[in-house]
Amino acid sequence: MSKEPIITTRNVDVFYGDKQALNGVTLDVPRNKVTSLIGPSGCGKSTFLRSLNRMNDLVDICRVEGEIKVEGKNIYDKDVDVVALRAHIGMVFQKPNPFPKSIFENVVYGPKIHGMIKTKSDAEEIVETSLRRAGLWKEVADRLQEPGTSLSGGQQQRLCIARAIAVKPSIILMDEPASALDPIATAVIEELIDELRQNYTIIIVTHSMQQAARVSQRTAFFHMGDLVESGPTKELFTSPNDERTQNYISGRIG
Amino acid sequence: MVQREISLTGRKRPLETLLKLALNLASVLAIFVTLGIVLSMVFETWQFFQKVSVAEFLFGLEWSPQTAIRADQVGSSGSFGAVPLIAGTLLISTIAMAVAAPIGLISAIYLSEYASARMRAWVKPLLELLAGIPSVVYGFFAALVVAPFIRMTGGQLGLEVASESALAAGLVMGVMIIPLISSLSDDVLNAVPNALREASLGLGATQAETIKKVIVPAAIPGIAGSFLLAASAAIGETMIVVMAAGLAANLTANPLEAVTTVTAQIVALLTGDQEFDSAKTLSAFALGLLLFTTTLILNIIAMRIVNKYREQYD
Amino acid sequence: MTNLFTTATGHLRARHRAEWRFRWLGRLAIVFSLGFLLIMLVSIISLGKGALSRTEIQLSIDLSAASTLEDVDLKKTVRTALFTTFPEVIERSDKRALLKLLSADSSYELARMIEDNPALLGQEPVLWFTASDDIDMYEKGAIDANLPENRRRLKDTTLGWVRALESHDALRSVFNTAFFTSGDSREPELAGIFSALIGSILSLIVCFTLSFPLGIMAALSLEEFSKKSRWSDFIEVNINNLAAVPSIVFGLLGMAIFLNVFGLPRSSPLVGGMVLALMTLPTIIIASRAALRSVPPSIREAALAMGATRVQTTFHHVLPLAMPGMLTGAIVGMARALGETAPLIMIGMVAFIVDVPQGFTDAATSLPVQIFLWADSPERAFLEKTSAAILVLLGLLVVMNIAAIVLRRKFERRY
Fold it and tell me: Any chain B CB within 8 A of the CB of C7?
């Protein structure tokens, strides 16, 4: 497996209208590791995450400058198809957002639109493997036809993860995936993230430093639109180079 | 300086009590109006059914309310089978809905999902203008421009088109009710949480796929409600059919022929000289009651659905 | 790996085509509606603009023998003037056709001119008279002279006279003030919208005086003075339903109760206004409730905390703040009432009204009903009158709606 970083960004600026949200972010994201993005709210970490799969395109006034390469290809090039890009990069959101459809329909939605399903058994297979990987199969195997919204919050979020991996992405972006969940459900999700690392590159935005320390191998600290520093999680937390990082992890800002 | 007298026991304020009573009376007026509608029509309808049987009215296939020529002939003539009128109403309303449902819904989708804020700001009021134009104007346009146009086009295709066709009336009525569907559906689509859009787009769905497979299914109840309200408006619309659909009771499913509707007959029966208790006059009230009940049921169902839907996403 | 995210597969291309088609479908739907609106307005404007002018014929009138208006045989004077203009016309039938150049009202026109200017008496003045609708239509290009004679309304002889008048500059086109100042008429060239307009205004006055206060009172009662209960829910369902009841049903109600039970005068703006008030009431209640709800609770709490009663709080603080919103709702409701036709037909406002109604109980018609009546008339000349009346109606509606928008903008406040 390649040792090269799967995502490399160089001098990324993001603007909302006249307001600059990110200033020259340069970051390498290693393959098959969990990278967390931390920082006080409004620091630009979610903005950065959303420019990685071009979800920012949905905001009319948003403009991205600089270079974001995924697998060596600048994703803001003219010939890039966002639909293909997003099939390659899955996303899990802050609040669990299952479709108001059955559990089964939720999982097969992505594979169906991407033409990955030819037969009924294809669908069943994808549903089972995805739900197994998301650690939800045992809980829902006998009620796949029930609406996804009938599950508990933690189960819903795992369903959303299953839905994302059903499309067979290589990267999964997670935007504070446990912030709406209780501690027990959070622990389950964190465990799941650790397992998923073997097959996927995961970038997770979190407001909890403990969570970053528990699940990630690398951490990047954002502050007021700047990427202050990044490095192996342990190093960043024990011996930060920058005073701002020091202040944040000791609880003085944020 | 006058010291304010402070007492914690209540002071009587008869004027305020009276005022509150008046306010409450005003709010009950709505119920009185409904009651007035029902009572006035039930009473006349009951009288009508003394002269003509309920079965004949509801299932009779012939409608020709003759005026009595001599005084001693009151109520003795004419046949009062409402089926051709009901069929005509349904035919025209179906045509109208066939125009308004797809166009209204697709316009709503375009406005809520694709259009820029600037385009919305221009197009939405223009669409609502369609609902603000009085129906007599649509009726005039239907009779003067649309009907001859359809007749001419039909003629070129070798089709026999009546000068007052159900198609002309239905088409124009459809345009009139487009804004009913588009503005309510637009509200309903906007109420679908953004999280669902993001979830679908994040999976690599195109916008059209997201709309067709996630947004619209999630909004179906509200959309259905808007369709029902529009259908109710189509059934109750009067001027367009009076001016463009004709008065000949004609039991047909052919949209190129002239048909008449419940509302058009009510107008025809009650304009001009009339004797108040002749079957002809009374039958208008029976038709009115039929119309009122139908639209009432449609409206209640529609409002229930829409309210339930709103609670779901509140 | 470089084309990993580019549109490589046929499947993906097909999906993008579907996206493109769907977008265009949306644009087409909107273009259809707006196109229909445009075509409707353009055709009505192009039909109606003719009603702004009318054709007049110049005649030399011999009033030399008269010293008072009573001395003048109006009809004969006009006839004689016409016959002297065309001395070659001798046949009785031709003479009758010749008289049809002028509007049927020309003798009254002469009387009015003499009343306005008594100095004409004893003179031989040259005066202008309204031409008949056929001549007017011909002058406006609505009658094609190239058609064979038996297929057009103007015969060859008449055409000859018209051309003779044209060559002597004895035909002119003037602004049609009569359209705005006179009532209905059987003769299209004389028909105007004034009495219908007055009927509409009188009905709206009745409608507003009833529905505005009642609507506000009902809204106050529901929003400020009652707790949510089954009863208030029931009232609410009733109001929402009434807003969607077909207008013709209100006409039936008015006919059965206002006319037959209360015995109020048929065809009168009073009854018309009452029926319109019942129809407008739900709109006003709904708009007024929304206006009341937009007043923040903090204002009520502030007043109540000062020791004001609920009634004082409402009337001193809440109602004034909600008033612009209520007025906006009322204007929108009035605009809808102005365009209503069917219920007014039911209560008999379809009469042929020449005179301007003098009060609320006089027989009257309304602008939309006048449109309906004219739309039914066979004469080609009524077509432009109908269209012009529609334009006047639409113009009034636009003015009312703009007033509502301006009011809303002006008083829109962010608390």
Answer: no
